Every structure is written in structure tokens, then in C-alpha cells.
Amino acid sequence: MTNFEWTSEVPLAAETTYLWHAQPGALTRLSPHWAQEIVEESYPPIAPGSVAQVKTSVPGSYGLVRRPFSSVHSEGPSRFSFVDELKKGPLSQWKHTHEFSSVAGGTKIDDHIEFSMGPAGFDSIDRTLIHNLEATFEARHTRMLMDIEFLERMNAPLLTQKKGKRILIAGSSGLVGRQVAALFSSAGHFVRLLVRRTPKFEYESHWNPELGIINPRDLAWADAVVHLGGRSIATRFTKKAKEEIRSSRIDSTTLLAETMRTLPEAKRPEVFVCASAVGIYGSHAEVPVDETAPAGDGFLAELCQEWEAAAARVEELGIRRVSIRSGIALTSLSGFLKLQTPLYLAGAGGRLGSGEQGLAWVSLDDLARSYVHAVLTNYVRGPVNAVAPDMVSQQEFAETLAAHLHRPARVPTPGFVTELVLGADGAKELALADQKVRPERLEETGYQFAHPTLTDCLEEELGSGA
């Protein structure tokens, strides 16, 4: 049996720190993306007998290779403590005790882990795992401090003891939706999720946009409605795919907006925040654009215009509307960065196309935070560009990613290769798009980026490989 100890401090009272860990979404927010992916949090969180399911990364893989790992919770040795113990996973034993105690200026968090890889003779593997745990807990500490700072700026109910808002979220099973839901619930707000499957938990409600099924009482319950649903656009733009992409967004948004219309005025939500994309500006930009720029040409530009118009119907009802025009979310959990990283690690990475195209990117954390900022900041309305202030070209992205991974960036991907994968239209509007976008509205309304530069983002999302 090998022992691992880690101690850190945070500027919150011990009871508050313990309660934060006991909130739905805390595990999602605490977990470095390169270290583990949350499949399903335990519910109720950290309650004895509850089970958390994750995919933990193999050390040295930058989060590209993950193994299933589940743990069951039990009571800890003191008032503010809890334990999670291996239920199923790649280790033979794992017991993690979390304890929170008061110190001057905040809380001391003591993490004690007892683990075993298997029979004797695995010393080198144990040392590797300890090194990985050190990197993981350092990153966990950084993430928690980052979230505490954000919660303070957003006057989180967990910190102020004031009543939280009621947040109804559609599209919560997606990459961004999970983080948005976790940010709200870990802050102490009341979150209800619209799901298409049969609800499993008390905080879930069924809906089916294709069939026009939704319970108006869910919308009447909500102070704010957040909609992030929609079929992935990372595909060949065939006629069928375009129609599915369009209908998944327009039909669901229309259903939400029209259901709000049927409610008595006093029962309507205060704000509707709906997803959109920087694709509204088209696939070619001569100069950087902000939210005042006109829409461009192409399928995505037309789609986003129609999408935002469907969301804007709620303004006739006196409901504040925000459309989050997101850039490419960079994360090791999915999407562009996850697809590119293996190529670079193999020495086959490089720019896409000419490399001169602007890449409108944003970290997953900043994209999720932009939704929370939009809901809780009363004077945010209309279109909001959720992109990082650090504008880069495809060439600059390639060089920065290669430097982070200590690999060359010498193998450019010609345009015809992306056309083979995405088709001519998909390649033009996605992989080879030239998008230079500024986050003017976010900065004007006081938003502070967690990862303002590409280097910051890559360090967060990929770590050092551990």
C-alpha cells in the first residue's frame, strides 16, 4: 500500500469549503480536464453510498488515453470530511480521505490517499502515479481558487447566504452544458435540467423538441432559461446534415420561446440566454469584428441569424435575451484540441491551410463562465462574442501548441485534406474559416477571463503531460 498526502489552503471558512464540495457540480468544476473526465457525478454529492463515475487519464497521455474509474462515498473521520473509495477501476485499492479544518484566513484541505497498483514489484509505477497525483492536486487547487474568485465576483449564494436563482438548462448533457450547470449549482443556485431521456434524478425534467413536448411549469419555475442544445456542426455539410443542424436549433429555441409566451406575465423567466456562434460573421474577415458587425455569408451565417431571431422573440414579452456567439472551445475533453494533439505528439502536426486564417478560440472554462455572466449581469443583452481576447492565426496556434507539447509544427494540413473530411462547404466554414473576432461586449460588461491567452488555455487543458 502506498500513501500520498497533499495539503492546500483556500480563503473560505471550513464549513463553506465543505459545503462547496457537497454541491452538485463541484467534482466537475474541481477536475482538471487533462486528468479526468466526469461521466456522472454522485448524487446526492458525497453522501454515503453515492457513486461517482469518471474516466481517469493514463499518466503522460495529456488526457488522450482514459480508463473508467468509479468510487463510492462514505463518512469521514471528522465533521467536515468525507471519503471516496474504489468501486471499480485500474487500481487494486484506492481510498481518498478529504478533511477540511479552519486556519487563519481560511481552510486547510488535507487529502490523504492510500492506493495500490497490485502485487509487489510495481514501485516504478507507484512513483509515476505519485508524480501524476502531485500535478493533479496542484491543478485542482488552481481550479478551486479560480472558481472561488469567480463566485465572489458573481455574489454566489453559497458565499452570501442569499437565496439562489432558479436556472433551467436545455442541452446540459453536452460539453459546455455540463460546465454551465456545474458552475451554477456549485455556486448555490437551483438548477433543473431538461433531458430527452426518461429523467433519472429529481432535478431533471423531460422534453422532446422534435415532438413539441415540454412542461410549461418548468419554464414558469425558472428565473432564467439557458439553451445550449443542437446537433454537432463538425460534420460534412450534406443537405440532410444541414437540415438536422438547423432543425435541432431552431425548433428547440422556438419551442422554448413560444412556451414562455403562453405563461402569465408574472410567471415568465427574467432572462433567456441562448447559444449562437461566431459563424454568424461568415468564413472570411478582412478586419477584426465585434458584435456590431453585420452578418456574413454561408450556411452557418444564415443559421445563426435565424437562430438568434428565434431566441429574440422573447424580447416582445419583456424578457431579457442574450445570444452567446461562441468561438471554438479548446479542451482536451473533445473537439478541435483533442483531435489536433495526437498529431502533434506524433510529430505530424502543423497549420491548417495557409495558416493565415484567424482562429476565434475560447477556453472551455471561459465559454461556460460567459453564460453565467450573461444570466447574472442584468445589463448584458443581445449578442455576446464568447472568444478570447488573444487573437491568433492558425499558424500561431500551431506554433504555440507545438511548443507546449515540445514537438515540431512542420507538417501543414493542405486544404484538400480537410475537404475530404468535411466537404468543400464544411472545410471552408469550419477548419479553414478566417475569423477575427473580438469579445467587445464581455469586456465592456466587466468580464474577467480565466484564460486570456492561448498559452494559459493550453496549460490548463493539457497540463504538462504529468
UniProtKB/TrEMBL annotation:
SUPFAM superfamilies: Bet v1-like, NAD(P)-binding Rossmann-fold domains. Residues 167-374 form the NAD-dependent epimerase/dehydratase domain. Coiled coil: none annotated. This is TIGR01777 family protein. Belongs to the NAD(P)-dependent epimerase/dehydratase family. SDR39U1 subfamily. Gene3D superfamilies: 3.30.530.20, NAD(P)-binding Rossmann-like Domain. It holds the Pfam family DUF1731. InterPro entries: DUF1731, Epimerase_deHydtase, NAD(P)-bd_dom_sf, SDR39U1, START-like_dom_sf. Residues 413-460 form the DUF1731 domain.
